[in-house]
Write a structure and sequence with these properties.
With 72 residues, the protein is an all-alpha fold. Helix content is 67%, strand content 0%. The chain has helices at residues 18-43, 49-70. Helix 1 runs antiparallel to helix 2.
């Protein structure tokens, strides 16, 4: 009697490499920081949206790391 096994059952979760984690964090900071900087320059503010963009990028990078490596 052959039992079918799911391909995902018993598989190890993906291992986080330092390069992947660092790229998620730096990529989020760079992307959203540039968007914040662009909004600042377009609307004439000095530094209002840049820190908001950096914070959004950091939170987004941490969220991606958690969803990719911790919860899987």
């Amino acid at each position: 009697m052959n039992e079918r096994t799911d391909a995902g059952a018993g598989a190890e979760p993906p291992r986080a490499s330092a390069g992947a984690v660092l790229s998620y964090l730096l990529g989020g900071l760079a992307f959203w920081g540039l968007i914040g900087w662009g909004v600042d320059s377009a609307l004439g503010f000095d530094t209002l949206f840049l820190p908001i963009g950096l914070l959004l990028g950091l939170v987004g990078g941490i969220y991606l790391i958690i969803t990719q490596y911790v919860r899987s």
